[in-house]
Amino acid sequence: MSGGGRKRPSTAVVTAAVRPDATPATATILAAITRYARSLYRIRRGNALNVLVGGGLTFRAMLAAIDGARRSICLETYIWEDDRMGTRFADALMARARAGVTVRVIFDAIGGFGMSDAFVDKMMAAGVEVLEYHPIAPWRARFNVSKRDHRKILVVDDEIGFTGGLNIADEYAAKEDGGAGWHDVHCEVRGPVVADLARLFRSLWIREGGRPYPAPPRAEDVTAPPGDIAVRVVDNSKLRRRGAIRRAYVSAIRAARRAILLENAYFLPDRRLRRALYRAVERGVEVSVIVPGRSDVKLIAYAGYYIYRKMVARGVRILRWQGPMMHAKTAVVDGIWSAIGSYNLDNRSLRYNLEVIVEVLDSDVGTVMEGHFRRDVALTVPFDVAEWDRLRWWQKALAWFSFRIRNWL
Fold this sequence. Notes:
The chain has helices at 11-18, 24-36, 54-67, 84-98, 117-125, 193-207, 244-255, 271-282, 298-313, 347-351, 363-377, 385-390, 393-408, and strands spanning 44-53, 72-77, 102-108, 129-133, 153-156, 160-164, 185-190, 229-235, 259-264, 286-292, 317-321, 329-333, 337-341, 356-361, 380-382.
């Protein structure tokens, strides 16, 4: 399928956009970009990227970057608990603030509900600038409990960036670190694309009333790129871009020729996404999705029953994770196009939450992502339509109701 008549950019435009040389490797990158990417806007060449699976690797890398900060730290998260892991992050941030590093933090009011006022006050007393996104204040004129900041961003010295699915809490920490060992994926990036993450943070900071500060360097001004990976930051922070991340997914799915491999914690795709996946199956593409075996949100668990049985009947392979909670939001298509971020394939991420992903066009990263997926399959069991048939009538009714409610909330 060609993508609904969408016009592809000329090679000349692609060349100008991503600054390639004339090597065979560049020709491969250009082919990947023109096939899988919906747009050339802000595709950044010259990046290095590490895929971080689980809280053990992710939190160690993030804390090491914080400890090495020389000038600035910008941290944005949805959930932040004042538990063991949350305290480790707070202590690290306070230490750098006392050392003269500028430290800015954005946390969501709902996601950070478990943080005590004393926990926040302690950070502010140490010099950390803290901004609470959409405080729980019904008396405010534009208060909306549904609109949340679900992004996870860390930028250190405008040189190192992190994003993905992990919140800051013990649930996400490795079991050997005293955590629950939830399965999740993050990434560390270096290169021009870090500037886009830094500017995304700054835009929200200023819009929500944070003290203004100078804009970070532009991605175009990075003169010593650390790698050659093409990456784009895709967000939905502006009203006209609410569907930007979904459009990136649909574009890659429509271009798929071999395999679409998704891991998604709250997988309740809308009709457009389902249609794209069904058409991929009809083209002979493998479509496999890993979802939680036991969701931490019961509403999602029942809604999943309702939609999974329809998708399995159309040839989509639904695999239920059997380890601790599966919280990842990743994708890899044909081992070339990958996505890592905070975006769930559900109505909340599409319509309400602030979200961000990195869209990666690189066969080496794609090979790593596909390898992780194939290994994860060993810890899953397939969803079978017979599971739906075994449900009692009231459970089926609850599944239908849960799916409708989740699409409305």
